[in-house]
Amino acid sequence: MAEKEIIIDAIINGEKYKAEKQEPRENPTHPNEIVGYAPVNTVEDTIKAIDVAHETFITWRESSIDDRVERMRRAIQKIKDNTPEIAKLLSREHGKALYDSEGEIGVSLMWMEYACDNVKEVLKNEVQEHDNGKTIIAKDAIGVVSAITPWNYPISLSTIKIAPALLAGNTMVLKPSPLAPLAVSRVVEIIADEFPPGVLNMVHGEADVGVELTSNPKIAKIAFTGGTETAKHIMKAAADTIKHMTLELGGNDAAIILSDFDVNDVRAMRRLVISNFLTAGQICMIAKRVYVDQSIYDQFVEKYIEAANKWIRVGDPFDNNVTVGPVNNQKQAEYVQSLVDDAAGKGAKIVKLGTILDQELFEEGYFMQPTVVLGADQNDPIVVEEQFGPTVPILPFENDQHAIELANDSIFGLTSSVWGKEEHAIDVAKHIQAGTTMINTAAVQGLDVRFPFGGVKQSGIGREYGKEGILAYTDTHVINVPKNRDLPYIPE
Ligand code: NAD
Questions:
Q1: What are the Cα distances from residue 260, in Å, to 236, 406, 430?
Q2: Which residues form the Aldehyde dehydrogenase domain (predicted)?
Q3: 234 lines ligand 1 (CB under 6 A)
Q4: Catalytic sites, residue numbers
């Protein structure tokens, strides 16, 4: 039986807001099937949402933290209650396997709970009594936050912003990506319903909406997750009105396999494979380049292919046996294929991995058979660019110093991982330029919502998660009551 098409509206001032135009969202597993429709909001709609959020901020910033936490906890419970339905919708519009959608919602809830548990402590005024009187250091809300999010983890990358922003007393206008707009909208509806009208607003649309959200003078902070190229436009758009900014951008994360890595450790090898191919490789923090000590390179490649063939089962996201679904959209699939073809054209060996469970379905949807690329050069696009899909190059290195140089030879610096004996791996990790370096695990397997996450170099500015991820939605406000109010060196 055909599934019901989902119709999503914008949310402005607590009300569903009908846009004049709707955009269909296809199912990447069955591209002829429409999963639902999201609005295509205009710049005028966006200005309305910003105006409402700006007006609401005046009262919302004065609300008590207890009240905010209570509201957020009610939303958390409702998202929990609706997880099966939301996860199913996410898998249909996104293509990620059902376990993966459930995992994304699980991590989102974990973070929202962490933010509720910690916001009071993080925002507590620091009061110092000192030899020159008293100083209060307060953490004030910033104002209207515009949140702009990508398609790959639409729910977690939206809630990562919504929870701390609202709990800290800000209001928000959020814009999801048109490539996965439906399931996240369900989550936003649930949260918005628990808060006063105008606190959390949502508009949908393309770059014109994004430009308004990043240039409107009433926006005080931009919280953006997406590509590095888009972020360059955003920084320019925001320059005229000097906005706060958290930018979570692309990555080209290196995994370094040291000489003392045990190639026969099947659990570790499985973790590495997962850190290359989870969500069909469409994760900012997936291990996108694997560097292996040349002394173990041949054995490593043999065992890696064995592990990959075992774990990778490509097919319908709703088949419990499937680990890798289709790529989210045709353009992305073509881009990834172009990188693989380029490497093959230059003489690299392309090894297909895993099993295709249903050949007919494979040809119908935006599926790609995962591949490993052997013999590519450090300067080839497959190594230099963020592929964001189910393929990974494996390259040898001569010694630890060489591995560090190769890993750092990138404009990106999001996460990275080092695999081998723990102390040795930590020693190497210290020299890598990245926001996070994981030891003997990688990608979301090594993620912990209690600790700050973000990138260095062109992978971003600022941090999400952890206490820093809450503080990112505040500004420091010092209330100073000095005893000596006149400066002695200023003449009478
Ligand atoms: P994207 O940059 O194309 O789009 C992200 C969002 O920006 C979308 O909502 C899009 O509509 C909007 N947008 C487009 N043009 C805009 C403009 N001029 N002004 C304002 N907004 C605009 O990214 P994507 O393809 O959706 O996502 C993939 C990218 O996101 C990858 O590079 C990936 O690494 C990155 N990403 C980073 C993280 C992280 O935490 N660092 C997490 C997930 C994804």
A1: 46, 19, 18
A2: 22-478
A3: yes
A4: 248
Domains, the chain, ranges and CATH?
A: 6-250+459-478 (3.40.605.10), 254-446 (3.40.309.10)
Tell me which residue of 77, 348, 294, 30 sits closest to 187, measured CA to CA.
77
Pocket test for ligand 1, best of 152, 410, 458 (most atoms within 8 A of CB): 152
Ligand 1: centre distance to CA 320 (Å): 30
Inter-axis angle of helices 400-408 and 422-429, nearest 10? 40
Residue-wise pLDDT tens digits, 180-194: 999 999 999 999 999
Report how far residue 121's alpha carbon sits from residue 129's, in angstroms, rounded to the nearest whole number: 20
- How far is Cα 397 from Cα 28, in angstroms, rounded to an integer? 38
C-alpha 24/C-alpha 337 separation (Å) is: 25
* Identity at 471, one-letter amino acid code: L
* Ligand 1 contact, 215 CB (< 6 A): no
Alpha-carbon separation of residue 268 from 19, 27, 260, 321, 358 (angstroms): 49, 33, 13, 21, 28
Chain centroid offset of residue 319 CA: 25
Mutate to test the pocket of ligand 1, among 107, 153, 230 (most ligand atoms within 8 A of CB): 230
Q: Looking at residue 1, what is its pLDDT?
A: 57
d(CA 149, CA 212) in angstroms, rounded, equals 15
Q: Which residue has tokens 């040291």? A: 258
**Running DSSP on this structure, what letter comes out for residue 12?**
E
pTM: 0.97
